[in-house]
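Entry 14. Ran structure prediction on the chain below.
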Amino acid sequence: MTPNEWQMLAVGIALGSQLMNLLHMRWNAQDARRNDAAAAATRKKAVGDLYLSSFRLYRLQQRSRV
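Output, structure tokens:
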């Protein structure tokens, strides 16, 4: 191989590795956003379940007093 071909090979490998790093960074950011959204939805569901169970308990206590 000529020196130019060696240089093009080295540059190609370097550019390819940089592009793969950028792709991995983008995929990790997407996963993080997806995980944050799932955690927020789970949190909302847990808060709603807690409210409904306390409301149900309140209604049972009100019935038992009557």
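Helices lie at 3-65. Will compare against last week's run tomorrow.
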